[in-house]
Known about the structure:
The structure holds two protein chains of two kinds. By secondary structure, chain A is mostly helical. In chain A, 77% of the residues lie in helices and 2% in strands. Chain A has helices at 2-29, 33-37, 44-54, 60-72, 86-121, 126-140, 143-157, 182-214, 218-225, 230-267, 273-282, 286-314, 316-323, and strands at residues 170-172, 175-177. In chain A, helix 5 packs antiparallel against helix 6 and helix 5 (86-121) crosses helix 12 (286-314). Chain B has one domain: Orthogonal Bundle (MetI-like fold). Chain B has helices spanning 2-7, 10-16, 19-28, 31-53, 95-131, 133-148, 151-162, 166-192, 196-203, 208-244, 256-267, 273-300; strands at residues 75-76, 83-84. In chain B, a hairpin with a 6-residue loop joins strand 1 (75-76) and strand 2 (83-84). The longest helix of chain B has 37 residues, at 95-131. Chain B is elongated. At the A-B interface, helix 1, helix 6, helix 7, helix 10 and helix 11 of A face helix 7, helix 10, helix 11 and helix 12 of B.
Amino acid sequence: MTGWALRRVTQSLLVILLMTLVVFIGLNAIGNPVDILVGEDLNQAERLQAIAHLGLDKPMWEQYLIFIKGAAHGNLGMSYVYHEDAMHLILQRLPATLELAFCALFLAVVIGVPLGMFAGTYPDHPASRLMMASSIVGFSLPAFWVALMMIMLFSIKLGWLPASGRGETREWLGVQWSWLTLNGLQHLLLPALNLALFNISLVLRLTRAGVREVLPQEFVKFARAKGLSPMRVMCMHVMRNTMIPVVTVLAMELGSTIAYAVVTESIFSWPGAGKLILDSINSLDRPVVVAYLMVVVVIFVVLNLIVDGLYYLLDPRVRSEASR
Amino acid sequence: MNTLAKKIPDSVRLQTQSPWRRVAVEFMSSPTAVVGLLVLLVIVLVAVLAPWIVVQNPYDLMQLNVLDARLAPGSVNMDSGYTYWLGTDGQGRDLVSAIMYGLRISLWVGIGSALIAAVIGTLLGLVSAYIGGWVDALLMRLVDLLLSFPAILMALMILAWLGKGVGNVMLTLILLEWAYYARTARGQALTESRREYVDAARGQGIGPWRIVVGHILPNCLPPLLVIGALQIARAITLEATLSFLGLGVPVTEPSLGLLIANGFQYMLSNEYWISLFPGLALLITIVAINLVGDRLRDVLNPRLQR
């Protein structure tokens, strides 16, 4: 176990290190922030002073070493635009993004699992066929357009739900959250549902496939023969055996959901990290872009590590393969 | 002759046909796929012929009249008597024309990037399978790394380096997509290289590269074709998303994604058509491609890892 974990952690650290290199080289290879940040009316001496102040006069490798050293301390430089610590900016906005992402995953489970269980139990029912067809649409629809249509229908035509901002927030653990107030929940529903569409389709299909695989098995027949109610058989026996893949896939999907929140946040004016990164790309605010990418990459790698670790603990086949 | 043909069972008759003809016949047996293919053909035709069909060039600012901005569908142009069937956008563009030109960009970006990525990816996949060793290990690690991060994140990263523009969006899509083809081509080539016909070719003294290109590559094509179809749909969606976010095409030459984005600001004043119709065009295109791709997958039946 220790050997496997050690190797896996080293691997993850290597990926992160590689990504810092890719991100750093890429962001420095093209585009000159000096032109954007330093006014044109400055004279040459003031210009050089500004470049030195931003640390852009040093050779590339030295900039990278400074970057790595800072990154290890959680310091990825000051934002050119906000004149604030870039990491601090991202971490300030991250809770709003995480709230949206977790809410989307919650909706995916609450909506996807029951529908998938129905579709798996009655695969030929017209409703099941409709669900499968809609799940294809859920996979292939451009999410941003669906978001606009949702705003048009639910906010403008019907006037049921607000379409922008976080609404009222309440403080918990030192951070402002929307889901603790009724008004905030109303603001949360549309963006979370939009972000969840892909995951709802995914969960629906996974659950359906799982149920169809488990239902014909002996232990289900036995549970029925014991006289357990159909509801109990479904919840206790079938569901337990179908939820492992669903949970692991969702854990992996959390990373993509955070990444795709960029689109949702920009449409619903959700003040999260995704909206910040878009603005930063447009204003060539490198440190913020780098900080965002690094944070998401670390989240990704850590999630993968956790899922792999869980598999190692749960699945004996992985263990025997790893020890070889 | 006729009665004899009827007595031969289908399975035998099918074997005597060429494989592509069999695929075509099987493809046509699904009505939805045929509808998808027809719709797709119409869309491609409209996109190709757009400059000769449309009443105005939506990218020529001289032809646009700001007084005609944001007219509702069915409004009539006072000067020429032309009816704006789908309305106009914020710059006074006829939406029918703008959508046709937008489709041109979408299809060009989607198909162009998919083709280039297919060539690069397939080549690298074959090289990886053929050379093996550390080249193979390195390439496949790179593929794993690329595919493990979501496309939008990679696209944001690449566009943050390269800046906006159609060319850069295509480059981004190519950098993202080649990995799919490489992985598939490598896997397929490894399976095919163990077949008897490769041994036979080798026994005939045919050189290794001719075996790879002339014998193994043709047998890798079916799964690559399916991936290609689905990747085109993905590429079109991603281009639209990036343009919507303002990272894609320039404002003066809106693609479907940018048209939708521009319409967003007018939606709050109930001028829904500027976002709705380009979105519908995008939707129909993507669904049609997916229908064709799904059917191709069923017909060609490769062992796909989705």
